[in-house]
Amino acid sequence: MDFQGKRVLITGGARGIGYSIAQRFNQLGAEETIITDIDEAGARKAAEKLSSSGNRAVAYKTDVSDEKQVKELFKRVSEGGKLDILVNNAGIIIDKLLIKLSENDWDRVLDINLKGTFLCMREAGRLMLKARYGRIVNISSMVALGGNPGQGNYCASKAGVIGLTKSAARELGIRGITVNTVAPGFIETEMTASLPSQNKEQYLANMSIKRAGKPEDVAYAVTFFAAEEASYMTGQVLVVDGGYFM
Ligand code: NAD
């Protein structure tokens, strides 16, 4: 895979899966890797790390749930030229059983995971339509496909990402833009570090491949969809979960 000459934007790229995705694009020759995150210091550190050993990487602070900030981000991006690839990776969890979930717990998770994905897709879509080229890869989750106790808000947001992906794929395909989803399983990052050990054991017991996933496992699938050669795949969900759901 070769991303020479490509400009890539990754949301939530300061750490975890997002950083690993940014790192892989950078290593595979992307001309510019744009790391955005609500964590400004983290994003800057990540971009500096990539730039020091590879091609250009820049950092912008953006809360993807805030329309004004997202519009400002894409205005700055468009001033720098075309955008070839967007990866909607920013996401959070607020895990509680349904009967204990507050309206705020619901809204925050849906606002970041689903509305944030929509806002970035809309702005990137406008740029990509003009260029008649684009690759959009959204990060969902395996639990969007099977549900998970204590994750009603998260599962709803990530299932919404799949529906949004498929609709956008139908709208944008005619202009050379593909839209796909990667649905990771249990991946070792800060997000999953606080999970109770019995949850981790339960995940591992049901996997074919008896190890937790690494951020790089997800990054590999993202670059697969983002490759120029993946021009005949759109609206798809690629599950990267060690064989948990089949
Ligand atoms: P993480 O918590 O380590 O990283 C998430 C990043 O998103 C952080 O850098 C954070 O600052 C950023 N972020 C949070 N809110 C934001 C906002 N409003 N605007 C911009 N950035 C924001 O999590 P991770 O495990 O690397 O997860 C990355 C993505 O993968 C998420 O969408 C997550 O739901 C998804 N995912 C993770 C797993 C897993 O097991 N880790 C499994 C399935 C899906």
Structural class: alpha/beta
Summed up, the domain count is 1
CATH level 1 name = Alpha Beta
Over all CA atoms, what is the radius of gyration? 17 Å
Strand order within the widest beta sheet? 3-2-1-4-5-6-7
CATH homologous superfamily identity = NAD(P)-binding Rossmann-like Domain
Give me the CATH architecture, please.
3-Layer(aba) Sandwich
Helix content: 40-55%
Overall pLDDT, averaged? 97
Distance between the termini: 28 Å
Topology, please?
Blueprint: E1 7-11, H1 16-27, E2 32-37, H2 40-53, E3 56-61, H3 67-79, E4 85-88, H4 103-131, E5 134-139, H5 143-146, H6 152-172, E6 177-184, H7 190-193, H8 197-205, H9 215-226, E7 237-240
Parallel strand pairs: 1-2, 1-4, 2-3, 4-5, 5-6, 6-7
The structure holds nicotinamide-adenine-dinucleotide.
Nicotinamide-adenine-dinucleotide is lined by residues 11-12, 14-18, 37-39, 42, 62-65, 89-92, 112, 139, 141, 184, 186-187, 189-192.
Folded structure, characterized:
The chain is α/β, with parallel strands linked by helices. It has one domain: NAD(P)-binding Rossmann-like Domain (Rossmann fold, 3-Layer(aba) Sandwich). It contains 9 helices and 7 strands. It has a 7-stranded parallel beta sheet with strand order 3-2-1-4-5-6-7, with helices on both faces. Strand 2, helix 2 and strand 3 form a beta-alpha-beta unit. It is globular.
